Amino acid sequence: MWQPQRERFAAGCAIGVFFAMIPLPFQMLGAAVIAYFGRVNIPAAIALTWLTNPLTAAFFVYLEYKIGNFILGTAAGEPTGNLFELIKRAPFPVLTGAGVLAIVSAIISYPVALWGYDWVGRRFLAPVRKNNAPKSQA
């Protein structure tokens, strides 16, 4: 759970991305608990919750609001005010969009994490392993 293994790392990334898209507090705690019980990589799950941070949260909540309004078929006026006002004024479209965005993002992040894990292994770790291999004596 703490040392990266290919599939567990990718599953941890998917869990982290899922929780990153949910606009609720304690995202890291939720991701860590689910990763623990799912026996996947906990550091990856926690790290990927940082996709939503003070710089990116407004973008993701606005996107969730738009997706939620599209799915629910409601008229989406342009939100005014701050982020918390939007969530307070229209929680159902935001949470609907968040659920859809979380599921889609998690599904996409799993194969991307597998590819990234393999790429890092080939690009950076394979040359180190070759140089540290014991020399055969002739």
From TrEMBL:
| Keywords attached to this entry | Membrane, Transmembrane, Transmembrane helix
Q: Where are the transmembrane segments?
A: 12-36, 42-63, 92-117
Instruction: Give residue ranges for domain DUF2062.
Output: 2-122
* UniProt keyword annotation of ATP-binding present: no
Q: Which domain of life is it from?
A: Bacteria
**Lipid metabolism among keywords:** no
PANTHER family registered for this protein in UniProt: SLL0298 PROTEIN
Q: Identify this protein by name.
A: DUF2062 domain-containing protein
Protein source organism: Terrimicrobium sacchariphilum
